[in-house]
Each structure stands twice: as structure tokens, then as C-alpha cells.
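Hey, quick one: can you model this chain's 3D structure?
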Amino acid sequence: MVDITVRGAGIFGLSTAWACIQKGAAVQVVDPFGAGAGSSGGVVGALAPHVPENWNAKKAFQLDSLLMAETFWAGVQSASGVDPGYVRSGRLQPVAGQTALDLAHARAQQAETLWQGKAVWSVEKSDPQADWIPQSESGWVIRDTLSALLHPRRAVAALVAALKARGVPVMAKAPDRGKVLWATGVSGLEALTAGHGRAVGNGVKGQAAVFALDARAQPQLFVDGLHIIPHADGTVAVGSTSERDYSDPAATDHQLDAVIAKARSALPVLQHAQVIERWAGARPRARSRAPMLGHWPDRPGHFIANGGFKIGFGMAPKIAQTMADLMLDGNDSIPDGFEVSASL
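Sure thing. Here's the predicted structure for all 344 residues.
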């Protein structure tokens, strides 16, 4: 007997399957393309918070998820024997000028309350001689201790191995059994859109690069719109673009060349580092811009978890818990704006 069928073996599907198993459910995971075949097979892996201001349900949910992440990924690693590359390394951001500096100080004060004393947003003097601190127009940088990182492909592999250790392989096909979770990314948004008069969501293409540079002890950086992520395998990932119009979601081009050039300009230590991989993929963005969670309207027993876009890995621990509670216990704790109806 199967309690839950999960369709889609990206980060939302795999993490929710794992959360359901932790609650004692019998689960099957189905994906004809294999685990991490979509945007969850990317290279960046920045688990970065929204700024601590204008607080809302989305930011509060993300805070909970980021604070859950260390325990979540430690449990997955223990069950699988595979290191997902999770490190709560913090993040540095250069401050552009006086206006930005004033805003950074205001946000530091708000973080003291909004982050519940569990992480810090601080403003510090920049060190122009340091290799890993980007140039700052104001001479100041923001350091936050909430940001973390993981390696997306290793995280997917760890979840797959953890599920397999509990007798749940990722299957290419299987009939629906029990309740069904649709966590099918861009194709799922396209299928939902086909039945409505307006777009439910769409794929937004991103391009990223991997450098051969060992900076594993360093914090991640956010510089001029770029995430610069020092992974534990001795590489640095840099991304990404946001492209609405594209013909081939998997093709890299001049836009990635511009990302690479911008990263090398912002961080001179990257200037002579070899680019060892170029990656592109379409990430699922719901119309509401928030994750899309809950019952599938007019399809009893069917549920949706989609719309991770750039924050899927950071949101995954909390989303997995929320969807497992909903499907197994009927406990609906989905925040306002995350409901499926918000994007329909």
C-alpha cells in the first residue's frame, strides 16, 4: 500500500517525499527524467534570506526554513552517507554608497527583532587587501550569518540515497497510488496554464558558471546581482541570469560570458581561475512569485508544490514539512500568498 505518490524528483518532490517517510508514510517517487533533471540539477546553491524589512508571511516562512536547514540536511546526510555540501557560512555584500549604507544600518536594527536573535545582519568596514572581500564604494560591507549554501547536485544525490535506503527508489513510471503530489517544475506550471485563461507561471532561464578555485572556508558573496558561492569541493559557482525569452533552456551564450566577466571584475581572485563548467536551465516561477502550495482545485487527493524559482533549496525544508502535514494529517499551515489559488 502506498500513501503518497510524488511526481517530480526535483528539490520540492524529493524533500517532501523524505518528510513524508519521516512521518511514517509509504511513499513512491516518480520522474520519467530522473532525479534533478530540471533546475534542481544546477550548480549555484545559495541559501540566502530576503532583507530584514517589510516583513511578511513569505519572509517569515523562509526564515523558518533557513533555520531548519542544518538539522534537515544533517538528517539526510546521516541516512544517506552522502554529503549535500551544506554549510552555514554567512554572506558578504559590498555597500554601494551613503544611501545604501544608511539603509544597511537600518536593516541591521530590524534584523535584531525579525531574525529572533538567531542570526545577525551587521555592517562592517571592508578590507581592501583581502582576496575574498569585493571592492566596496563606501568602504563598508554587510555580513549576515543566516545565509548558507549547499551543492544542488550533491543535495539531490543525498536525498535520492536517503530515500533509497528506506526502500524508495526514484522510478521512471508508476500509476498513481494514494494521494498525489505534483512537484513537476516548469512542465507542471505549463500544464496548469493550459487549463486557464492566463499564465499560472512560467520558466525563467538562468545561466551560471563553475570556476576551479578552492575558497571553501570563505563566506558566500552577493555582488552586483551575482551570487558567488565557494563550494566544499574546491570550486566556486557564480550565477545567474534571469531570462524570460529563450529558445533553448539548456544553452549557454554571451549572457553567461557577461556574468563571468562581471564576477572576475568584482573579485580579482577569479581573474585567472579556469571556468570548468557552464550551466543553463529554466527555473519554475509561479505567477504570484511565491512558492505555489496546496490542494489542486477540482482534483480531490491531488496536491501541488511548485514555483521554487531562485529560492527552492532554501525553502525546501519548511515546504517539505508543510506539505507532509497537509497530505498526511490534514493540517493546513500554508501562509497567505502561497496557496495555489494565488497563482490561478
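One thing worth noting: The chain is about 30% helix and 20% strand.
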